[in-house]
Specification:
Length: about 100
């Protein structure tokens, strides 16, 4: 069995779009939480209002394949929901040291 993977997705959020960005995340979280291989997710908000990334999503998945299958289903189910000016930079990571 493969080790879990971690999705880390930092979001650049326009100041006037913070609530819309959180609602966007919640819609995606609710969908992904129902998919096989989903383990958990947390949304972090920067304490520094001037930080480049105001929100960071950290999600744990049972495997890389589970995440990619769920992401494909999500794109089909939710379409292309947009929040003007919101941009993310998602990547999967594996723990290599503790």
């Amino acid at each position: 069995m493969s080790a879990p993977v971690t999705l880390i997705n930092p979001f650049k959020v326009p100041a006037d779009k913070l609530e819309a960005a959180i609602e966007y995340w919640e819609a995606h979280r609710d969908f992904m939480a129902q998919q096989p291989g989903y383990l958990s997710t947390q949304l972090h908000q920067s304490l520094d209002e001037g930080a480049t990334y105001q929100l960071i999503n950290v999600a744990i998945w049972q495997s890389e394949a589970d995440f990619y299958q769920a992401a494909q289903k999500m794109r089909q189910a939710l379409g292309h929901i947009q929040v003007e000016g919101l941009s993310g930079n998602p990547a999967l990571y594996r723990v290599i040291r503790t």
